[in-house]
Amino acid sequence: MGNAAKDTGPTDPIIASGGCTAQRLADLVNRLGRGVHCLQFADGLNPAQWDALRYIGRANRYSRNPSALASYLKITKGTASQTIKALESKGLVTRQPHCTDGRAVHLVVTTEGESLLQRDPLKRLEGAIKELGTGIDAAKLVLCELIDGVEDASGKRGFGVCEDCTHFCRNEMPNDSCGPHQCGLTLEALSGMESSQICVDHNACARV
Amino acid sequence: MGNAAKDTGPTDPIIASGGCTAQRLADLVNRLGRGVHCLQFADGLNPAQWDALRYIGRANRYSRNPSALASYLKITKGTASQTIKALESKGLVTRQPHCTDGRAVHLVVTTEGESLLQRDPLKRLEGAIKELGTGIDAAKLVLCELIDGVEDASGKRGFGVCEDCTHFCRNEMPNDSCGPHQCGLTLEALSGMESSQICVDHNACARV
DNA sequence: GCATCTGATTTCGAGTCGAAACTATATCGA
DNA sequence: TCGATATAGTTTCGACTCGAAATCAGATGC
Questions:
Q1: Residue with smallest Cα–C1' gap to D25
Q2: CA B96 / C1′ D21 distance in Å
Q3: What residue numbers bound the domain in which B25 lies?
């Protein structure tokens, strides 16, 4: 008792804000997160392993390494190393030496890993998302704002796909055999596929 | 390789859906969840412990027990029991015997627990939420739809506060000393504070 | 009175998680 | 070229989550 009483008083903030307090909304965000977490105990993997496998399957060639994984998942490199080991022992991922840097490791999803990714539990969420219909763009806006808020609060920023990056130049090199787009940072050509991969050097739009 | 290529082709679904695919949105939901998860490694507690402490502090007298906690957090009773033990050893929660049922346990947040709840890391999210301004109600709608989708997918439904329950009768007993509202299930009077507590018998509105 | 049900706990094995120590390679500057 | 330092990754540690299954004790029903 005591704690919850703050929500109810002479000037009820629930009514004042038009139906929903910040605390109530934070709870909803948390509840959604818990729901998604619990959804990911599937096919013998746990949420951390699904997150890692998904990341490795979607990251571009500069980002398929333990450090980038740790940074994306906001975990330490030690923890990332252990989760990779778990995935490796299940035969879903392999470690390969980097061609020039002897310290670096290249992570590759195996055929078994690829086929397991077809059963990604997060896909069960996509059905519900499709029911949002045209509301999907409003939802994206809301989610991006909330993610911004959370990542500002924790000081740890995630990253995204090339297409959403400030360095991305669409159709900059239409006649290049490697792909029509370009990364403004590395000046490399990017194919359509590469443009939708997660990049560790991703730079989000400047915030208001 | 391979996996991400599905997003790019002659008929690009990103453009087709007006800027955001279902997969992309599911990723955002997951990323938000991970961010919130990571925010909750704070003050010596982990996310599971914060979730449990928060729940016990907000649940009503029928719901402050291990079973209801497990059901709310979508974990097994065994896991709930262990997390309670961890909170107990930190002096944040105590177990008390139930007055009539010898098997049942009543969970109570200690004074130390109450003061720790004042530093709930989820509050760091509330600042970001307030910046949504009037968008907060749209956000609530989006979150509720997503939660519905996730809980349908997992088959495990969470529950909420009396005010959001179909059994809740607002101002049904304005002259009762115990409170102006009423629970249509137990027929008990509910004070303003009790109405904003989480109830294990919560019944959400029928879905479309 | 006994079978069954229910609330809660314990035990087990796999694994997350941060922290810190550690290994090995790379890079930079004198 | 050598040494200091930086970087990539791993290992170890202790606390803890998590589901599953076994277990215990009180409640309920016939």
A1: B103
A2: 27
A3: 20-121
